[in-house]
Amino acid sequence: MAVIAGVLLVIFGYQPQREPSVGWIPSQTAVFTRTEPTPVPTSAAHRAVKVLQHPTRPKVIPIASPALPKGEPAQVVVATTDGKRLVDTSLVPTVRNAEEELVPPFGKAGWYAEAGWSKRKPGFPGPSVVAGHISHRSQPDVFYNLPRVRPGDVVSIKYTSGDKVSFRVTRAEAVRKDLATDLSGDVAQSIWQPSGNQSVIRLFTCDPETTFVGSHYLGNWVVWANKI
Prior knowledge:
eight-stranded mixed barrel; disordered N terminus
């Protein structure tokens, strides 16, 4: 199984908003009918000066960013809504070969760790990609049951540190390989360049319902999932 992909590195910029400045608000002009100023009790004047000298600023409550998983991705598990495991396999970093194909090892799944994407570990901001074989030498391989995954199922990535991050499946369908890599189309955009900076994951394998040519199926089965 090979996933051919011209992957673009998307840089998400962030520009913090400036804190609104605190300015003085001029009081309305007072009109007096007497030429002598009205005396102000000393205590009241003192209180007024205190208010002006020590204006109360609104409290700023920082919003904590979600903690990122530590260590390296080590295992991927996909379970149905009733808890049945469809996928349970070890996970290793994987890059494209000389033919620009993402080919994970047999017997394991590979997370896409190409330069620029190595910071897109599952659970980190942006899209992460995990690929696995559906069969090897006519025997089921690690993603043999991936075509059975449906929306609502849960993808869990376990890290070497013991941390775990989970995703809820939102979409699962067969995709032609040319459509999965054509970044001018909506399907490829949803895989490689989703809007926003949320943590999402895409799982790839071959679609066994498509034609087998040479050593590859012509189609992919793709699973989309968002971090829970």
